[in-house]
Structures are given as C-alpha cells and as structure tokens.
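ERR on first pass: missing label on line 2. Operator R.T. fixed the label and resubmitted. Corrected input:
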Amino acid sequence: MLRSSTLFVRTLRDDPADAEVPSHRLLVRAGYIRRAAPGGYTWLPLGWRVLRKVEAIVRDEMDAMGAQEVHFPAMLPRDIYELTGRWEEYGDNLFRLKDRKGADFLLGPTHEEMFTLLVKDLYSSYKDLPVSLYQIQTKYRDEARPRAGLLRGREFLMKDSYSFDIDDAGLAASYNAHRDAYERIFTRLKLPYVIVKAMSGAMGGSASEEFLAPIEVGEDTFVRCTKCDYSANTEAVTTAVLSPDISSYASAAVIETPNCPTIASLVDFLNANNARTDRTWAASDTLKNVVLQLRHPDGSTEVLVVGVPGDRDADIKRIEAQVSPSEVEPLDEAGFAKHPGLFRGYIGPQVLGTTSSTGIRYLLDPSVVAGSEWVTGANVPGSHVLHLVNGRDFTADGTIEAVEVIAGDPCPSCREPLEIARGIEIGHVFQLGRKYADTLGLSVLDQNGKQVVVTMGSYGIGVSRAVASIAEVFHDDLGIKWPRAISPVDVHIVVTGKNGDDITIAGEKLGAELEAQGLEVLIDDRNGVSPGVKFKDAELIGIPTIVVVGKSLAEGNIELRDRHAGTNQAVPLANAVQRIVALVREG
RNA sequence: CGGGGUGUGGCGCAGUUGGUAGCGCGCCUGGUUUGGGACCAGGAGGCCGGGAGUUCAAGUCUCCCCUCCCCGACCA
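pass 2 clean. output:
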C-alpha cells in the first residue's frame, strides 16, 4: 500500500510558470515528473508507475502479435551509422560523443541500422522469415526546440519495431499486423486517435501512416473529412479533381492590363474595364504561376514553375514533400535575372514547359483540370490573356499537389468538405522497403538458392509521449483523470480522521482488504492535514476511484467518488470492498 | 537557427533614482484546529542564471554567454 505520509511526492499549489500545456503543468504539479535537463525529465514514483503501465500494454500487444523483444545499447559506434550516411545526414539532431581513445559514438535517435545488422548477423534463409523484432528504448535527439514537457523532449522512451520479409506481400502482412496491434494499444490506453496518410518521402511508393491523437496543442496538422473516414497529413492530401466549370469556349484573347502585377489588381481591372455579363471576375478565374527553385541533393539547381488557381496559395512544404530529397525555395532576384523570358506578374503557360521557348519545367496543381479556362499572364509586361484553356491552348509537363489545403476543400474520397485539425503523433507505421537492407547487405537465400534482398517495415510508438498525450486528453481544471488501465494505482483512499480514531482504523482496514483482493491502493494517511487539502490532492493526482473514509462513517458509509464522472455516492462500509473491486475489474 | 519574452529559497512572485534581499505557499518546532487548499507564535532555507566590467557600493547600470517559455524554421 502506498502511503501519502511516506510517498516521495510533493504536490504544488501553483502552476509552474514555465509550463504552458496542460499535461506538462499537471504532471509537474501533481508530482509525476520533474525537469532535470533541457528536454529531459525525472520520473517520480507515481509517474514511473504510469510510464511502466503504458509500457506494459505496449509490450503485451507487441508480444501478442508475435513480435519479439530485444534490447540494444543506446550508445552506438559511429561506423554503423556511417554505412547508411546517417552520421552526416542526421546533422545537429544527433547527440555525438567520444570515448577516451577519441573514437566517435552517438546516442541512438532510432535503430534501423542496428536491427538490420542484427538480422543479417543471425539469419540467412527465407525459412527464417518473416520476423518482427522490437525494443522499448530511451532515444536521444538533440531537438532544436524541446517543448511542452514530455511532448517533445530530447530524451524520451520509444517502442520501435522492425519487420523483415522476403517479399512485398509479406511486408504488407507485417505492416497490417503492426497497424492492428497499434489500434489495440491505443484503444486500451483510451487514447483517441486518427490514422492519417503520411508522406513516404524519398523512398516513394511505400505506405506510411501516422497515428495522431487529435489534441489542439499537437504539432501536426491534418485534414479529415466531415462525412467519411478519410484523413491525411496536410502534406499528403490529394486534391479532389472536380469537373471544370466551363462558361465559354471563346478563343484566347490578349488584352492590355497595365499596372496589374498582382491577382487582386488584375481582378479589379477586369471588373472595371472588361466586365463579364454573367458574374464578376474572381481570383479563382486566374491562373497563378509560382516560380520556384529546386536544390537537388547533388547541389545543382533547377527552376520550376507551378500553376495554381489565383485564389490559392502554393504550399512549399507540400511541394517539397513530393520532390524530396530536393529542397524548394522561391526563385530570388538573381534567379529571375537569368531568365529574361519571365516577366513577374505577367507569366503565362505559353512560354513554360520543357519543350517551350524557356525550357522551364511546368507543373500544374490537379485543380487546374484539363478543359478548364483561365485568365493568365501573356508574357508581356502589361498584358494578360483571357479564355486560355488547359489542353487546348497550353499543356504542362505534369501535375503536382501544390495548393495550400484549407478547411472546406472537398474530400478526395467523397467530395464533402474537409476540416483541419491538430494532433500529436503518437505512432507511425511505415513500409521502409529495401533501402536499409540494400545498403547494409541484408539478403537471404530463397527456395531456389538465390540471394534475395529482405524488405523491411519500421514502426514506432512514443511511450513517454503517450503518457503526456493521455494527460492532455484526460484532465480538467482540478487535475488529471487517468484511465483505469494506466492509473498509478487502482484506488485512492482519503482518510479524514486523526491518528488512531475509528475513521483511521476503518480506512486502514479497507485499504488492506482491497489490497488482499489484488488492488493497488494509495492511502492518504497524513495526520493533521485538513480534509480540504487531501481532497484537492486526490483530484490533482487523478486516480479514477477516490474512496473517502470520513464523517459518513457515523452512518456506516464510505463515499465512492468517480473522478471522471465527478459523482459521489454513499456506500455502506460492509459492501465497500465488493463494490470497489467490481468497479476496478470492469475497467 | 531567426523574432519576442523571461530568469530572485522547493513553487508562485515583489524589489523605487544603485546603499548589501522581501512576501505568499510549502518546510521545521510548539499550541489550537479537522468535510473543500485552517489559525497563532517562533524558526530554517537565497553566489538574486553564469562570467567580465563600471562604481566607495550592483538583484538594480554595461558587455558577453546560458536557461526556460511563445511564434517561426527544423523534426524516423
């Protein structure tokens, strides 16, 4: 039985000034964690219990799906990360250190290399596969900006697992097994989640999904459909292509548009000098050509123009995700100087494209559909062209998802409006493919005696982050409200008597009986502490079931308080054990 | 890494034109209290983020560095 009188904890009456988000504030205030270093936290007894319970659920489900637990060192030699180029690639985010001989080491930010090499070390036949391995490990990343307590630290606990298969079908099965296990884990943790499509980045084609807990203080932005179950990271959203709204089939016509370098000035000019009869001109009638510069990994650069509807902004991050590993930036003055054919504000698709006069690659956002009609630059200062039809008057080199996704955009799956929300990434499942196996030489003999490169998946759950996310979801103004499965104990008994009186004796006896039934009990046995203080502490600490043994004992009752529901009911002491045990067992 | 803010006992804060540090909570002792963060009395606890400087004298002024928080960049 944990006793408040001796438990190593101190609750704070005031919010710590440096904590902004609720989970950070409450975990510190209730005595679960203490900051020990920039981005590093000490787990106090109550917090450590919660962390271990989350860990236990993760372990239980990983074991149940057939993955096997291993454990690597956190401190790893440089040469292994040199093999995949990640010693350099990871940049400043990697914690590096030297041993006494001057040899380089790092603190592992993730362990793909180690797992790959371990399997290579031990296995060499298709008969050994598939296999899934995992560990629950402290990870180190020298984040540019640790924040929000446990939500983004520089040292954190993560479950990472890796699957190894002989072929794509096997990988898909391993991937789905992990995905299912993750759903069970987050369900048991009572952590709400949405599974969003994520970018698979440079490797291309591989499936990648993130588990996000929809919480406002989260760092990830995602969209979800208000009607169907579509959801995606904003970078990974695909545009719903609608049929073009063609109002006329007039021929393209160049008109003079002096002093109209921006979309707004152009629209105003058209409405004043070239009004249409059916409606007014709008920004969405115009085609905006955004000039970008790609910086390729080899250091070379390439100018790229992206065409988007004039009422929408281009989302550089989204574009970048599709051209990764190349980097994207707007073309600067010096860049424009090298392309005299481009007149800023008057650029039109007639001079764009790899086969055009400029030879500049030209891509269109999918919302610029074939057959749609636009007002756009005439490639002469002070002139625009009307009725330019995609496919009739110009073509592009292809499409790229380019516009900034906004609330109300149509869902790619059902066309209903999308909404935008924030979330915390609590899990990620990813079909890695053969990237690591290739570079590290992990292959096995197949049934024909031929070497086959193994295909891998990698899967992560932020364990310490999950603790914070749960506190983020389950709290109120008074404190935390733990879900039963991960509460530091099952029952919090508040005894409001004085040492040695009937109330204290009854409370102690109840605690012992509950413990005999296998429950974990915290009893507030502090002497001389007023009931108000004990109630406040109990609410702050947030054990889901609070049992008050106090003045109602005179009528033979105890009080059963439900921290989640906020209810308080009198229960005869004689039935207390049975009632409480039933409550805890039913979860 | 850029912008803004911040740093004074465990926690929250005050500290004037430079004069040698204070309040509330918490903690200790004694007493009175005991159903919603009690009261009285007496205590302990601070290199005022670090360093350098100006000055007879620096929490306070100057310079450099660091921390934490927020926004952005970054983030398997």
